[in-house]
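Entry for the shared binder. Reason: the reviewer on the internal report wants the predicted structure included alongside the sequence.
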Amino acid sequence: LAGTKEAIDLCSYRMSCPGLGNEVGAGLGQTKSMIKGLFFSPHVTAQALKTAVFAAAIFEKAGFDVSPKPFDTRNDIIQSIRFDKPEALIAFCRGIQSASPVDSHVVP
């Protein structure tokens, strides 16, 4: 890059992110994505954990056996919901699919 300091700074902010600019090294065209990941990952992880706890609480209150329980310590975002009858599981899957933004017309 060549030009005024201001132009160089603006270009470096565009190639990486505002505030970091040319202070970060080469990233093979992935610098912006890597920096975004560092900023977004704590928030996205917190949202996933909160959603798993929320789902556990809702389904437990509805009478389903869930694992882990809403206030158990979690090591991942997997939430298990036990259905006593195969028909209940199929109905659940169909309900989720019908409300999905992609291929909602598909019947599992």
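Summary line for the report: The longest strand covers residues 65-67.
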